[in-house]
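Now read the record:
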Amino acid sequence: MEYSIYYIFVYKGQINGRGCTDCVSDDWLNVEVSKEMFDAVGKYGNDYYIYSNGEIVNNPNYDKILLDKAKFDKIALNDELRDTALLSGVTYQNVLFDSDTDQKVNLLATVNMMSDEDTITWYGMDNQGLLCTKADLMAIGRLITELHSFCWNMNAYIKEQIEEAGTLEELEKIEINYNRQ
């Protein structure tokens, strides 16, 4: 349906939506705009324009707003992928073991109670058991520590790249990869 009048709504000096009928309230302004401007707010959001000196004008900070939002989203994705990598497990003698903090604590506690000659069956993520010596448990612990160190260092490195990106193009070029191969 095609309308003949298009409004951008302004509340307390801030653009806060759009519509094709008046917003009836003493606190809201109804600023009549072109269909192109109306559509742009629908496509790009309320921050695309600003209300200044009684009119709707292009927001000179829009590119920075987009970049900041994109950085926020990329950091969130980076953290999500880091967390996935941290929990991906470590492989020792063809058994995939948990790599979470509980596993590290359990390994440390068990190693502290074992003599060098003791053995224990340690179970992997798929419930596959492996007969382990104290040295084996320490090796699994080292793998977990290496994984955690890699993930946290990579996370910091990627976040630094994200924060230093000056344009959306630079930000899009940043690869988030926690694959250690």
